[in-house]
Amino acid sequence: MELTYTVGKEEAGLELKIVLRSKLRLSASMIRRLKRGNGIFVNDLPVYTNYRVLEGDNIRISYAEASPDIPAQKGELDIVYEDEWFIVLKKPRGVITHPSRSRYTGTILNFALYYVQQQGGVTVHAVNRLDRDTSGLVLLAKSAYAKNLCTGVPIEKTYLALVWGEPGEDRGTIDLPIKREKKMNMRRIVSSEGDRAVTKYEVVAKCGEYSLLRLKLETGRTHQIRVHCSTMGHPVLGDRLYGTEQSLELSDRLGVEAHMLHACRLSFCHPVTGGLLDIDCPPDWIELGQGKWHR
To answer: Annotated active-site positions, please?
Structure first.
């Protein structure tokens, strides 16, 4: 992969490494890798990073993307946006976002890697992830550089959830810290010893025994929405880990087999083009505004 930048008048006299960090937004670790691999050039000549640039200098970065340590696997992808840097796709319920020690294949990342390599690419990285039974939008980067550019970029994430009961307030903010219940345990709990977690919610529709909520994350803790909804007394329908006796009884009666949570919107400033990406993706199981759902 190659990146280029022409030095302007305002950068003249700066050390090259400063320009690499501020203008090309390379991380310190990537700069170190480029130095080891002799991948930094000015006017097509290899240089050290303490070189002081001149106005009009043409900086060129050339690096080979590291080979992925997971297998590429042909599989179905529902792509809703793609450019040379990123892919945004709709993940179905029941599919894992990326491999783990217990599951090495059959994930979104395996399928996306196969897709990217068929296009001549090398690798792909997950910028955000969703729980296995949460459906919705997942952002993938086509290079380590693209993923690194997302560091510090605010990404607004909006979810829809069907929850048990009817919240007393039509909107509110849940600000409760979350931590792992026990070491090596998947379950999370609200605890003063946990990391701060903030979720904003709005009631979209009340349907008697259950409600449709729109939720926005200000933090990104594992299971955050599920824990917060359960803690406020309105567990996500179908949630076997955080559900109550009442919510699970209703889930069984309605035939809900997996938690009804969907990442319906991603909104962020594209770190390369500077344009706003605002992507909506309604779930398959809801008719918005009508208080109806279907599987």
So the answer is: 131
Angle at 227 between CA 225 and CA 233, to 5 degrees: 100
Strand partners, 138: 89
Tell me the per-residue pLDDT of 101-136, one tens digit each, with 9 for 90 and over. 878 899 999 999 999 999 999 999 999 999 999 999
Low-confidence ranges of the chain (pLDDT < 70): 286-295
What pLDDT is attached to residue 289? Answer: 42
Domain 156-263 has CATH 3.30.2350.10: yes
Give residue 240's identity as a one-letter amino acid code. R
Asked if the domains 2-62 and 67-151 are classified in one and the same CATH topology, the answer is: no
Cα distances from 247 to residues 16, 162, 259, in angstroms, run 59, 11, 11
Domain 2-62: which CATH number of 1.10.260.30, 3.30.40.230, 3.10.290.10, 3.40.50.300: 3.10.290.10
The CATH number fitting domain 67-151, selected from 3.40.50.2000, 3.30.160.100, 3.40.30.10, 3.30.2350.10? 3.30.2350.10
Residue 191 near residue 177 (C-beta atoms within 8 A): yes
- Contact 109/115 with Cβ under 8 angstroms? no
- Placement of tokens 């990146």 in the chain: 3
Asked if 217 contacts 208 with a C-beta cutoff of 8 angstroms, the reply is no
